[in-house]
Amino acid sequence: MRHGGGDHAARPPRIARAIRALSIPIILFWLGIAIILNVVTPSLDEVGKAHSVSMSPKDAPSMIAMMHTGKVFGEFDSDSSVMIVLEGKQDLADEAHRFYDEIIKKLKADPTHVQHISDYWGDPLTASGAQSADGKSAYVQVNLAGDQGTTLANESVDAVRKIIAETPGPDGVQAYVTGGTAASADTGTAGNKSMQKTTLIAVGVVVLMLLFVYRSVITMFLALVVVGVELMAGQGVVATLGNLNVIGLSTYAVSMVTMLGIAAGTDYVIFLLGRYHEARQSGEDREEAFYTAYSGVSHVILGSGLTIVGATLCLSLTRLPLFRSMGVPCALVIFVIVAAALTLAPAVLAIGSRFGLFEPKRKHDERSWRRIGAAVVRWPGPILIVTIGIALIGLLTLPGYTPGYDDRQYMPDNVPSKVGYAAAERHFSPARMNPEMLMIEADHDMRNPSDMLVIDRVAKTAFHARGVGRVQAITRPLGTPIEHSSIPFQIGLQGAGQIQNMKYMKDRMADMLTMADQMGTLIGTMERVYDMMRELTDIMHDMTGQMKVMQGKMHDMRDLMATFDDFFRPIRNYFYWEKHCADIPICWASRTVFDALDGVDAMVEDMDGMLVNMDKVDVLMPRMLAEFPPMIAIMKSMHGTLLTMHSTMSGIMNQMDESTKNSTLIGKYFDQAKNDDSFYLPPEVFENADFKRGLKMFLSPDGKAVRMTVSHQGNPASVEGIATVGNIREAVADSIKGTPLENAKVYLGGTAAANKDLQEGAKYDLILAGIASLCLIFIIMLLVTGSVVAALVIVGTVAVSLGASIGVSVLIWQDLLGMDLHWFVVPLSVIILLAVGSDYNLLLIARFKEELHGGLKTGFIRAMGGSGKVVTNAGLVFAFTMCAMVVSDLRIVGQLGTTIGLGLLFDTLIVRSFMTPAIAALLGRWFWWPLNLRKYTTARAS
Fold first, then answer.
1. Cα–Cα dist 211/245, whole Å
2. Pfam families annotated for this entry (predicted)?
């Protein structure tokens, strides 16, 4: 029995005749293409590694923030950075510092790969902020050349690791290179290493499936050769264009190109061979069977290929480079494989069929699938309800879907960056290695006390935002307010000065009391001196009178002596003339007497002069005596005043002592509590050398921009961490409202901010690419089937299929295995499943359309019987090939492969086998609207 084969044999298509006639040149052409491209161009893995593109979305707010921050501070112009973590078995000592300093020195000597080093541990001012609380670990952030994911960034990571490897460290101290860029480089390396293993497993799956399907080693081998040549040609085209920098590549793009190529190429070979075997078993000869097979599946292969090409090209419309990098490479490899499937595979079939190499080894069993078709035609409603119930298992799981953003969870445990993360997390929180960078850019210099108040308000408000665990800024460089910067402390500091002065004041008060005692003694002495002076004045007055009497007597005695001298002058002269008077005793004695008489005159004259002075003293003594009483009174008044002053000051001092007794405790308690409610920096602080160093770290050279490092309480690469980004932005917006920085620009970048952009970008890209893919698939299905309803049913069932399959993947990975699906797995799986999932429905509907001449129900049963096994085999091969990606060292690749594989299994076994047929049976003729089914059936029957 033949089903639609005779007409093809009578009128074979010109393309099929041309391919059969030129089969050898076609085979040689494809072999030449595959060989030349793979000889001239390095392998796809090597090209992908050498021409890797950035995975950072340049238009994302977080990327703009990071780039602008680097530009404003004049430090870096890329988004690549790593963390170098030092870990010691004991506290990091001087040897560790010397090791660290040597590493920093070598890094600074490599400007080709290193752009900036945040050397906080090397500065005593900020060292404690970069060292762990237990003192056994420290870290430094290094900004590298090249955007994350690019070849230059990967080379920069290797350069840093080489420097560390070549720098000998002290015993017990180990250095690690970790961080986002290091993890990205390790992801690429791990993906490239596991690509060969994944490919071998996929090929093994294909071999087993082909052997199971065809029971022929020769058929399996030839089919595998066709798929291999197609894959080599497709990879060669992609590698060549990548090597010429026409297209960009990534680790995931390389993996997806290979696996899609293997799966799609195998599917199309199965389509062709399946239809050929069916024609042969229906009684057609080899040539007729060739034409029947080509005519029966060429439009399906073309439609399927265009669907996949178009859907994957829709990825080029997305904003995220991770998706965009897959669009053109995947579309190219599928385009090449479709071209080969429409030329090379038929050419190999044409030559092989001449020698009987592709003859079926077992009878094509249509009965089972016809029974299924008959059951669906008989009970379409219940079967549809059952399939929807099965789909609900996955669909109801979808609301619990939680995307994963922490790439470390999906990496092998032994990659260097993950080992470094583990070392860091033994001493720091996970957030310390993945901080956020907050920058505020104003239109004026902010290096003044008033703007510092606003900056601290921003830092404080951001710190109090939900999910934030630490904020480092110029006003809190170690994550807590600057010590002694609270207003209560500064007020207390004034009291501290008073307390320090109190001792000196009390000592002076004691001196005052001593002075009062000495003054009292002095007053007593002066009173005694006054009494003695009073007696002395009286004595002096009496003595002056007596001296005057004596003066008169002395004058009388002088006169008498003068008379005596005049009488004895001749005799006196003898005594002075005698030369030997000194030898004559009586002479010398007489002479001595006369000399004494001459002295009386001198004594009288002296007494006259002395009496003059004594008269003056006699006058002055009463006057001086009169001065003593007032002076003593003044001294007594001063003594009393001094005692009064001492008493008063003692009271004041006691009050001051009491008032300043606890004046410094408020500042002490504010410091201990790390309270940031009353921050203030006086102007003189800006002249402090240490503070100037801090300004260079946190403020731009012109002072118009200030940056802050924000660390999360939890893991920033999580849904909760992403939610914290919104809290930070709201807190900053509220804190600058109504301040001089109200019009300042706020920039926020970092791990969580980047993940938030990825989250929003993935949603946007999923909607954009999903809608574009659905529209494209609908148009292609409409062109192939000619029915709007059939096209809508195909698109709708594929949508249900991918929702259910993703739900099942969530159930397996998230709920059973405890690992969240990576955020990019679902969007990419949706795009791939939209494209691939429609293939099998398309093949079924196209075959249904061919069998319409037998009537709706009969044709439907025949279509199910004729295409059921082929479609199922193709779907299983595609599904198992994608599931082979689970052996990849990257769990992301494994999740992507299993999600697509589960979708294909659901689509093959549930949707294509039961759901779509049940809907078609329920709709009946309306399924083919707006086709004129009666005319079409009549034309086909004739």
1. 40
2. MMPL
DSSP-assigned beta bridge partners for residue 87: 137, 174
If you write DSSP's letter for every residue of 291-302 in order, what string do you get?
Answer: HHHHHHHHHHHH
Q: Where are the beta strands (DSSP E) in 592-741?
A: 705-712
What is the pTM for the complete model shown? 0.75
Assess whether pLDDT exceeds 80 at residue 871: no
Residue 440 to residue 740: CA distance in whole angstroms: 12
Report the run of H or E that residue 334 belongs to, with start and end: helix 321-354
> If you average pLDDT over each of 86-90, 585-589, 930-934, which comes out highest?
86-90
Q: How far is CA 609 from CA 547, 613, 735, 857, in A?
A: 12, 7, 99, 170
In DSSP terms, 902 is beta-bridged to none
26-46 burial: b if 16+ Cβ within 10 Å, else e:
bbebbeebbeebbeebbebbe
**Rounded Cα distance, 829 and 897, in Å:** 8
- Whether 575 has a pLDDT exceeding 70, the answer reads no
Write out pLDDT tens, residues 605-663.
777 778 788 888 878 888 888 888 888 888 888 888 888 887 887 777 777 666 665 55
Q: How many CA atoms lie within 13 A of 717 on its CB side?
A: 19
- Largest alpha-carbon pair distance within the chain? 206
CB 145 within 8 A of CB 153: yes
Out of 1.10.8, 1.10.1660, 1.10.287, 1.10.530, select the CATH number for domain 487-659: 1.10.287
Torsion of CA 499, 500, 506, 511, to 10 degrees: -160
The burial of 362, by beta-carbon neighbours within 10 Å (0-12 exposed, 13-18 middle, 19 or more buried), is given as: exposed
What's the pLDDT score for residue 939? 46
User: How crowded is the C-beta side of 118, counted as CA atoms within 13 Å?
Assistant: 23
Give the count of alpha carbons within 13 A of 236, CB side only.
20
Strand order of the β-sheet with 468-472 is 468-472, 705-712, 436-441, 745-750
pLDDT digits (tens, 9 = 90+) for 67-98: 999 999 988 888 889 999 999 988 888 899 99
CA dist 662 to 485, 589, 666, Å?
19, 97, 8
Q: What pairs with residue 293 in β-bridges?
A: none
CATH of 1-57+216-361, one of 1.20.1640.10, 1.10.10.60, 1.10.8.60, 2.120.10.30: 1.20.1640.10
Q: What is the pLDDT of residues 663-720, one digit of tens each?
A: 555 555 555 555 556 665 667 777 878 788 878 888 999 999 999 989 888 888 888 8
The CATH 1.10.287 domain(s) of the chain lie at 487-659
CATH number of the domain at 371-400+786-942, out of 1.10.10.10, 3.30.750.24, 1.20.1640.10, 3.40.1790.10? 1.20.1640.10
CATH 1.20.1640.10 maps onto the chain at 1-57+216-361, 371-400+786-942
Distance CA(550)–CA(556), nearest Å, equals: 10
| Average pLDDT of the residues in 924-939 | 66
Distance CA 505, CA 503 (A): 5
**Residue spans in the chain of domains classed CATH 3.30.70.1440:** 61-187
CATH 1.20.1250.20 is held by the domain 61-187: no
Band of residue 3 on the pLDDT scale cut at 50, 70, 90? very low
- With tokens 């094509």, the residue in question is 364
Is residue 481's pLDDT more than 80?
Answer: no
Phi, psi (rounded to 5 degrees) for 818: 75, 25
Residue 873 near residue 263, CB atoms below 8 Å: no
CB atoms within 10 A of CB 504: 9
Q: Categorize the per-residue pLDDT at 584 as very low, low, confident or very high, splitting at 50, 70 and 90.
A: confident
Tell me the mean pLDDT in the region 446-465: 88
